[in-house]
Batch of 3 targets.
Target 1
Amino acid sequence: MQPVELREKKTNLIGYILAGVLTFGIAIPVMLVQRRLFARRFDQEGVTRKDGQRFLWQDLRKVNHVYRRSRYSYSQRLVNVELVFTNGRALVAPRGLANEKEVMAFLERVATAPTDSG
């Protein structure tokens, strides 16, 4: 598997600025802490989060797809993918990525790959 760098869309920066302004700066520390949990890079061995912590695929326990229901319809949309490892977790927000299809294809391969532990 080729390494995949998760590239954020430019519009995410506008969203961060807007959230900071609308909440008078209260949301900024919360967003910074939450942002550290997001994945930065996938490769053959595992995941590297934005805070530099590394998780190995062999320690992957569960892949949770988090959906949110639309306010005005009964449709649901994917908000986050949570990768749960034995020693922590990493988050992926596919809609905020410029290379969403590439990342989701990679995650699909990893989620369906057999593991040594079971």
Note: Residues 11 and 102 are 19 Å apart (CA to CA).
Target 2
Amino acid sequence: MLHFFARQLLDFYELRRSVHEELVFTANIGDAHTVGFTAAQDDLRRLSAKIDALDQSLSFASRSFLHWRGYDLANAAGGLRGLSNNIGRAGYNKAYSRFEVQTGLRLPADDTAERLERLRQAEERRENREE
């Protein structure tokens, strides 16, 4: 029983490390014409699928432990999907997706909730002026 619990946690922490590495590696990917753009999208989606699969297959004890430690795998998986869709863009959606991944996996966050809110409001004002 202990081996089963420990194996699931080890799998989680290895996947968490891979996600952190990918976030650092893809932080400055430009638009769709940038070398590595498609690979970055695919890698982020694959990591999202792996986190989602792990989340669905965790035992009750492992899921409870990770929740108790403050991890939110569903938000992290959703954030990775969002980031893969917004990788070539700047602004709120990309920043929010990264923030969801970082907070869901308790990684160092690039932004704060307050800064994201200011960014969202600024984009909203800019869109309203364009209309």
Note: Residues 29 and 99 are 17 Å apart (CA to CA).
Target 3
Amino acid sequence: MPIQVAETSKAKRAPKTLSHLELHPKMGGGHIIKHVYSGYEHQSKEYSFNKEGKAAGGEHISSHLAKHAGLPGADE
């Protein structure tokens, strides 16, 4: 008689919804913006900006905040 294995289903993850942003000074100059999500299953993500306010990809800190925090000027 073969052994039957029950099918397992993965628990659905909650949608990745931004709860808030945290802005921290970075050692040596610059800042770190931390994205904190509402669901516990989603890890926070940090974005680093140098003294001039630029990220590794070239995005400026003001553009990043405008885009993710809903600040005026996001569409500029």
Note: The longest strand covers residues 18-25.
